[in-house]
Amino acid sequence: MPRIPRVGALASLPSTVVPVNRVPFVARVAFSTTPVHAAGRKAEWLRGKLWKGEAPGGDDPYQERVEPEQASNLPEEALDLSNVDRRPYPVRTTRLVLPPSHSEAMTEKEVESVDTEYTPATSIDDLGEISPVKTWWDQPGHWGEESEFQGFGSANRVEDQAVMEIYVRQALVESLSYQQRGLLEEYAVKKWPFGDRAHLDRTLSVGIRFKDGKPLLSTHWSVVTEKLKNVRPGEVEEKVEISPEEAQQMVNALDPSWKTATLDDDHLKFAIRKRIYQLTGHFIPDVKVAAARTPQELITVALTFAKRGKKLAEVLEDQKALFALPNVKVHNRRVTPIDREVAVGRWKIIEEELQKRDLPVTGTGKYGKNKERDWLTGKA
């Protein structure tokens, strides 16, 4: 069979390729013959149908508009807040030396540009040591005696009956003086100065008279509070201490009828109770103050100490019923694992082994709590 030339064979085959007529991109773009101003009139006609009268906003809602700046009615002092200290008022007015705010040290080049005499350190010995923040209050000048807590009530509680009566008499006269001057409600919530010995003698010399059972000061009652108000804080720092013998002589010189005065005013009893707590250290509960009607009852309540009730172990020890049983032992506190080890004689060995390993005998010491247990139980 004769061979067919390759070119001739391809030429004799029927053509299966369909020609594609490509249209240029420019020819396929749709052009509008409507002018631009005609489209604007159409939009205005549509806006007129939607709104009665003049339509709000611009013609093109998608066009960016520059909003006008709103004029503020605030003064210039209120607008300029760049230099205002925004720290809390207690922090701004405190007398304590607070730690400085966090700041970053300047680089060597920055320091040289500010201080021409700056010499960088060449060894670790030339570097200055800065104390950490946790030791700030231990440094001198940051926390002194003036910053220590000063309790309102006296630290030394009065135990003598005569001394207690003298201080109650002083509190009664001072409170009545404020009441008769119309200043009791104002000064009842303030701290009164202790006063010196002359103030105490002046207070005890004021006479007390009764009107319908209510006490009233008879002579020189305005001088008591006037001197008390004019006492400067630096003059008297401690109260006047009275010995029991001297107090007994003062009590004998006074008329005991003042202890039967009727106290039915709540502000008066509050001021007396507060002054008694300041002078004697005895704080009378509200329930007992409300029940007390006379100064004598206040003295009795202040000097009556509530006795602690017996514990269950003490009650069982008094009954002696369980102590007779051979298999029962009563403890006055909770029995701990250490108590059990001590009972069998193992605690001494355990203590020695813990000390050999530099482990705390009781507690966690410097190792902290068991965090792994909290992780496993989901508490952390």
Automatic annotation (TrEMBL):
Top-rank lineage group of the source organism: Eukaryota
Residue ranges of the region described as Disordered: 52-72
Main subcellular localisation: mitochondrion
Subcellular locations according to the entry: Mitochondrion
Keywords of the record: Mitochondrion, Ribonucleoprotein, Ribosomal protein
InterPro entries: Ribosomal_m50
Name of this protein: Large ribosomal subunit protein mL50
Taxonomic source organism: Fusarium oxysporum f. sp. radicis-cucumerinum
One family name in Pfam for this protein: Ribosomal_L50
Listed GO CC annotations: mitochondrion; ribonucleoprotein complex; ribosome
Family to which this protein belongs: Belongs to the mitochondrion-specific ribosomal protein mL50 family.
